[in-house]
Amino acid sequence: MPAVSTSTLVTLAAVLMIGVGVIGFGSVLVRSAAARFKRRERLSGEPGSGPRAATGPFAQLADRVRRLGGQVETQDPSQASALRTKLARAGFSSREAVAYYLGARSILLVIATVATLLLVPMALTRTGGVGVVLIAALFASVAVFGPDQVLRSRRTSREREYRDGFPDLLDLLVASVQAGLSLDAAVSRITEELVTRYPNLAEQLYLMTLEFRAGQARKDAWSRLADRLGIDEARSFATMLRQAEEMGTSMGETLSVFSDDMRQKRMLRAEEKALALPAKMMIPLILFIFPCLIGVLMLPAGVKISHAFH
User: Fold this and answer.
1) Long-range Cβ contact pairs of 273-282 (< 8 A, separation 24 or more)
2) What DSSP string runs through 35-85?
3) CB neighbours (10 Å) of residue 238?
4) Rounded Cα distance, 294 and 289, in Å
């Protein structure tokens, strides 16, 4: 088989894998955004302000991905429950997010299997087939570990935002409660203030205000918020609120003490990163700066010595 055909096949397989992955995860994002708009429509009472239902080939492909993922989801409900929590922490809170994720991952695995079966025989019949085997292994690795890596990356970035914004959230809660607002009203007021700086945290608080309006107990709503955020600060805060409510302690003093503790922890994290910076700078210094410095210092001496011998 000529080399052009091999490169064309490799390129086509790569484009197919990337396209299907983008379509699958893009559909999850579209569905999640549509669900958020629908919730806001119901609260504002202005129907028709949200996005219209998607039509065309993209919608048909997304529907097929969803149905395939739904079939995989029904085979193992316990795994689907754990995956739903993982997707929610990564920002995919739609009801059908699990189905779209499983469907996209299944299609990626099928495409990677087909690409591997097509590329491995080429490696056995051609010289220099190690590169083809490496490309097939790369396709398989992307199909197996790619979706989880995307979720892990989104979850890490969101948790970083949650940790940065949680002390500010507590400071605003303390100010609002000491000003005379109830805790539920303070959360509703703070959500509007945090949208610009911490949009993901504000979205989670907005979901919690919807749970308040639906009649859910305060301690249960804060526990669900801690599960969605997935950070230790939120879990500790939910536990503290439950204990304060059961023991009848002052909410303002409790929030003030916890806010001071969170602010000190944020300062300690910043100091820890500052102290770890010299150790992290050693590798770039050794690999890039020191060779350039040695070259600048030793090159003139080397030129003089070579001229002296000539």
Assistant:
1) none
2) HHHHHHHHHHT-TT-SPPPP-SHHHHHHHHHHHHHHHHHHH-HHHHHHHHH
3) 21
4) 9
- Which residue type occupies 279? A
Q: Is the pLDDT of residue 74 over 70?
A: no
The predicted model scores a pTM of 0.65
Q: With beta carbons less than 8 A apart as the criterion, state whether 107 and 69 touch.
A: no
Block residue for tokens 């003030």: 256
- Enumerate long-range contacts of 170-177, CB under 8 Å, 24 or more apart: 170/237, 170/255, 170/258, 170/259, 170/262, 170/263, 171/259, 171/263, 173/255, 173/259, 174/252, 174/255, 174/256, 174/259, 177/251, 177/252, 177/255
Helix (H), strand (E) at residue 142: helix 130-178
Q: Are 139 and 108 in contact (CB under 8 A)?
A: no
pLDDT digits (tens, 9 = 90+) for 151-168: 888 888 888 888 888 888
Torsion angle of alpha carbons 184, 242, 216, 39, nearest 10°?
60
Q: 137: how many CB neighbours lie within 10 A of its CB?
A: 14
Per-residue pLDDT of 244-298, as tens digits, reads 878 877 777 888 888 888 888 888 888 888 888 888 888 888 888 888 888 888 8
Place of tokens 């969170």: 262
In angstroms, the CA 238 to CA 218 distance is 9
Per the listing, tokens 């410095």 go with 293
Q: Are 51 and 34 in contact (CB under 8 A)?
A: yes
The amino acid occupying position 30 is V
